[in-house]
Amino acid sequence: MPSKAATVLRNLGRQDYLGVWQAMQQFTAERDGDTSDQIWIVEHPPVYTLGLNGKREHLLKANAIEIVESDRGGQVTYHGPGQLVIYLLADLRRLNKGPRQMVTILENAVIDTLRQYGISAQAQPKAPGVYVNERKIASLGLRIKHGCCYHGLSVNNDMDLAPFADINPCGYAGLQVTQLADLGVKISTQELAVPVVHQLLQAIEM
Protein backbone atom coordinates (compact mmCIF):
# COMPACT_ATOMS: atom_id res chain seq x y z
CA MET A 1 0.00 0.00 0.00
CA PRO A 2 1.45 3.41 -0.90
CA SER A 3 1.89 6.01 1.78
CA LYS A 4 -0.71 8.74 2.08
CA ALA A 5 1.96 11.15 0.85
CA ALA A 6 1.71 9.59 -2.61
CA THR A 7 -1.22 11.77 -3.70
CA VAL A 8 -0.90 12.52 -7.41
CA LEU A 9 -1.61 16.08 -8.63
CA ARG A 10 -2.91 16.58 -12.17
CA ASN A 11 -3.35 20.02 -13.74
CA LEU A 12 -5.80 19.46 -16.59
CA GLY A 13 -6.13 23.05 -17.82
CA ARG A 14 -9.50 23.86 -19.42
CA GLN A 15 -11.55 20.81 -20.36
CA ASP A 16 -15.20 19.97 -20.99
CA TYR A 17 -17.07 18.85 -17.92
CA LEU A 18 -18.46 15.66 -19.45
CA GLY A 19 -15.09 14.23 -20.43
CA VAL A 20 -13.54 14.94 -17.04
CA TRP A 21 -16.53 13.46 -15.22
CA GLN A 22 -16.33 10.28 -17.28
CA ALA A 23 -12.59 10.07 -16.60
CA MET A 24 -13.27 10.33 -12.85
CA GLN A 25 -15.82 7.53 -13.08
CA GLN A 26 -13.39 5.33 -14.98
CA PHE A 27 -10.52 6.05 -12.59
CA THR A 28 -12.70 5.19 -9.58
CA ALA A 29 -14.06 2.01 -11.18
CA GLU A 30 -10.58 0.75 -12.05
CA ARG A 31 -8.68 1.71 -8.89
CA ASP A 32 -7.73 -0.81 -6.22
CA GLY A 33 -6.29 -0.69 -2.72
CA ASP A 34 -2.84 0.21 -4.04
CA THR A 35 -3.96 3.07 -6.29
CA SER A 36 -2.70 6.48 -5.18
CA ASP A 37 -5.28 9.16 -4.51
CA GLN A 38 -5.37 12.01 -7.01
CA ILE A 39 -6.27 15.70 -7.04
CA TRP A 40 -7.31 17.16 -10.39
CA ILE A 41 -7.16 20.92 -11.05
CA VAL A 42 -9.33 22.09 -13.95
CA GLU A 43 -11.45 24.89 -15.43
CA HIS A 44 -14.58 24.15 -17.42
CA PRO A 45 -16.23 25.95 -20.33
CA PRO A 46 -19.73 27.22 -19.40
CA VAL A 47 -21.94 24.37 -18.14
CA TYR A 48 -24.74 23.78 -15.66
CA THR A 49 -24.51 20.53 -13.72
CA LEU A 50 -27.38 18.87 -11.93
CA GLY A 51 -26.63 16.64 -8.95
CA LEU A 52 -27.87 13.06 -8.66
CA ASN A 53 -31.20 14.14 -7.17
CA GLY A 54 -31.17 17.56 -8.81
CA LYS A 55 -34.52 19.08 -9.70
CA ARG A 56 -34.91 20.79 -13.06
CA GLU A 57 -37.27 23.29 -11.44
CA HIS A 58 -34.11 24.99 -10.14
CA LEU A 59 -33.20 25.82 -13.75
CA LEU A 60 -35.17 29.04 -13.88
CA LYS A 61 -34.53 30.33 -17.37
CA ALA A 62 -33.47 28.63 -20.58
CA ASN A 63 -30.28 29.90 -22.16
CA ALA A 64 -27.58 28.56 -24.45
CA ILE A 65 -25.50 26.95 -21.69
CA GLU A 66 -25.19 23.16 -21.75
CA ILE A 67 -26.88 21.17 -18.96
CA VAL A 68 -25.27 17.94 -17.74
CA GLU A 69 -26.99 15.55 -15.33
CA SER A 70 -24.15 14.45 -13.09
CA ASP A 71 -23.83 11.81 -10.35
CA ARG A 72 -22.45 14.09 -7.63
CA GLY A 73 -24.37 15.14 -4.57
CA GLY A 74 -26.25 18.44 -4.43
CA GLN A 75 -28.56 20.30 -6.77
CA VAL A 76 -27.68 22.61 -9.67
CA THR A 77 -24.59 24.76 -10.03
CA TYR A 78 -22.68 26.58 -12.75
CA HIS A 79 -19.10 26.13 -13.91
CA GLY A 80 -17.29 28.50 -16.23
CA PRO A 81 -13.95 30.10 -17.10
CA GLY A 82 -12.39 31.95 -14.18
CA GLN A 83 -13.66 29.42 -11.66
CA LEU A 84 -11.26 27.05 -9.92
CA VAL A 85 -12.46 23.44 -9.90
CA ILE A 86 -10.64 20.83 -7.83
CA TYR A 87 -11.64 17.18 -7.92
CA LEU A 88 -10.61 14.86 -5.11
CA LEU A 89 -10.35 11.18 -6.01
CA ALA A 90 -9.63 9.49 -2.70
CA ASP A 91 -9.93 6.11 -0.99
CA LEU A 92 -11.97 6.97 2.09
CA ARG A 93 -11.37 3.57 3.68
CA ARG A 94 -7.62 4.04 3.50
CA LEU A 95 -7.92 7.59 4.83
CA ASN A 96 -10.31 6.35 7.54
CA LYS A 97 -12.65 9.25 6.85
CA GLY A 98 -16.38 9.38 6.23
CA PRO A 99 -18.32 11.43 3.66
CA ARG A 100 -19.19 14.22 6.10
CA GLN A 101 -15.53 14.50 7.14
CA MET A 102 -14.53 14.86 3.50
CA VAL A 103 -17.10 17.62 2.96
CA THR A 104 -15.68 19.45 5.98
CA ILE A 105 -12.13 19.01 4.65
CA LEU A 106 -13.15 20.56 1.32
CA GLU A 107 -14.93 23.46 3.02
CA ASN A 108 -12.04 24.13 5.39
CA ALA A 109 -9.52 24.09 2.53
CA VAL A 110 -11.41 26.99 0.94
CA ILE A 111 -12.03 28.82 4.23
CA ASP A 112 -8.37 28.63 5.22
CA THR A 113 -7.26 29.74 1.76
CA LEU A 114 -9.59 32.74 1.75
CA ARG A 115 -8.30 33.73 5.18
CA GLN A 116 -4.82 34.02 3.65
CA TYR A 117 -6.26 36.66 1.30
CA GLY A 118 -7.95 38.55 4.12
CA ILE A 119 -11.44 37.18 3.43
CA SER A 120 -13.56 35.86 6.29
CA ALA A 121 -15.67 32.92 5.10
CA GLN A 122 -17.92 30.36 6.77
CA ALA A 123 -19.53 27.01 6.13
CA GLN A 124 -23.23 26.41 6.72
CA PRO A 125 -24.05 22.92 8.05
CA LYS A 126 -27.47 22.75 6.39
CA ALA A 127 -26.23 24.07 3.03
CA PRO A 128 -22.79 22.65 2.17
CA GLY A 129 -20.43 25.16 0.61
CA VAL A 130 -18.51 28.25 1.63
CA TYR A 131 -20.07 31.68 2.13
CA VAL A 132 -18.86 35.25 2.49
CA ASN A 133 -21.44 37.61 3.99
CA GLU A 134 -24.20 35.09 3.14
CA ARG A 135 -23.10 34.97 -0.51
CA LYS A 136 -21.82 31.67 -1.84
CA ILE A 137 -18.24 31.68 -3.09
CA ALA A 138 -17.61 27.92 -3.25
CA SER A 139 -19.78 24.92 -4.03
CA LEU A 140 -19.03 21.28 -3.41
CA GLY A 141 -20.43 17.84 -4.01
CA LEU A 142 -19.05 14.33 -3.79
CA ARG A 143 -19.94 10.89 -5.05
CA ILE A 144 -19.00 7.89 -2.93
CA LYS A 145 -18.60 4.57 -4.72
CA HIS A 146 -16.99 1.39 -3.36
CA GLY A 147 -15.54 3.36 -0.46
CA CYS A 148 -13.91 5.96 -2.71
CA CYS A 149 -14.93 9.53 -3.52
CA TYR A 150 -14.76 11.68 -6.62
CA HIS A 151 -16.03 15.13 -7.69
CA GLY A 152 -15.02 17.94 -5.33
CA LEU A 153 -15.28 21.72 -5.13
CA SER A 154 -15.46 24.87 -7.21
CA VAL A 155 -14.34 28.33 -6.11
CA ASN A 156 -15.52 31.48 -7.89
CA ASN A 157 -12.39 33.47 -8.64
CA ASP A 158 -12.75 35.95 -11.52
CA MET A 159 -15.63 34.93 -13.77
CA ASP A 160 -18.91 36.04 -15.30
CA LEU A 161 -21.42 35.43 -12.52
CA ALA A 162 -24.44 36.26 -14.68
CA PRO A 163 -25.34 32.61 -15.47
CA PHE A 164 -26.00 32.00 -11.78
CA ALA A 165 -29.01 34.34 -12.09
CA ASP A 166 -30.77 31.77 -14.29
CA ILE A 167 -30.70 29.06 -11.61
CA ASN A 168 -31.39 28.58 -7.93
CA PRO A 169 -27.76 27.98 -6.97
CA CYS A 170 -27.51 24.63 -5.19
CA GLY A 171 -31.30 24.59 -5.01
CA TYR A 172 -31.73 27.73 -2.89
CA ALA A 173 -34.03 30.37 -4.31
CA GLY A 174 -32.57 33.85 -4.12
CA LEU A 175 -29.13 32.69 -3.05
CA GLN A 176 -26.54 35.26 -4.10
CA VAL A 177 -23.03 34.39 -5.21
CA THR A 178 -19.73 36.23 -5.04
CA GLN A 179 -16.12 35.77 -6.12
CA LEU A 180 -12.62 36.75 -5.11
CA ALA A 181 -12.40 39.45 -7.79
CA ASP A 182 -15.45 41.21 -6.34
CA LEU A 183 -13.89 41.04 -2.88
CA GLY A 184 -10.80 42.91 -3.98
CA VAL A 185 -8.52 39.90 -4.61
CA LYS A 186 -7.09 39.73 -8.14
CA ILE A 187 -5.13 36.54 -8.75
CA SER A 188 -4.99 33.93 -11.48
CA THR A 189 -7.03 30.78 -11.06
CA GLN A 190 -3.86 28.72 -11.21
CA GLU A 191 -2.39 30.79 -8.39
CA LEU A 192 -5.51 30.25 -6.31
CA ALA A 193 -5.19 26.50 -6.79
CA VAL A 194 -1.87 26.39 -4.92
CA PRO A 195 -3.08 27.14 -1.37
CA VAL A 196 -6.34 25.19 -1.82
CA VAL A 197 -4.45 22.08 -2.89
CA HIS A 198 -1.93 22.62 -0.09
CA GLN A 199 -4.73 22.70 2.48
CA LEU A 200 -6.28 19.54 1.01
CA LEU A 201 -2.99 17.67 1.05
CA GLN A 202 -2.38 18.63 4.66
CA ALA A 203 -5.81 17.35 5.65
CA ILE A 204 -5.71 14.01 3.82
CA GLU A 205 -2.06 13.18 4.47
CA MET A 206 -2.18 13.67 8.25
Write the layout of secondary structure elements.
Layout: E1 8-14, H1 17-30, E2 38-43, E3 47-50, E4 66-69, E5 76-79, E6 83-91, H2 92-95, H3 99-116, E7 122-123, E8 130-132, E9 135-145, E10 148-156, H4 189-204
Parallel strand pairs: 1-2, 3-4
Antiparallel strand pairs: 2-6, 3-5, 6-10, 7-8, 8-9, 9-10
**Number of continuous helical runs:** 4
Largest sheet: 7 strands, mixed
**Low-confidence spans:** 1-5
**Topology, number of strands:** 10
Output mean pLDDT: 94
Order of helices and strands: EHEEEEEHHEEEEH
Rg value: 16 Å
- Briefly note the structural class of the backbone: alpha+beta
Helix content: 25-40%
Strand numbers in spatial order across the main sheet? 1-2-6-10-9-8-7
Q: Tell me what portion of residues adopts beta-strand conformation.
A: 25-35%
What's the shape? Answer: globular
Distance between the termini: 16 Å
What do these coordinates show?
This protein has helices at residues 17-30, 92-95, 99-116, 189-204, and strands at 8-14, 38-43, 47-50, 66-69, 76-79, 83-91, 122-123, 130-132, 135-145, 148-156. The protein has 206 residues and is α+β, with helices and mostly antiparallel strands. Helix 3 (99-116) crosses helix 4 (189-204). The longest helix has 18 residues, at 99-116. The protein is globular.
Task: For the structure shown, list the relevant keywords.
single chain, 206 residues, alpha+beta, 3-stranded mixed sheet, 4 helices, globular
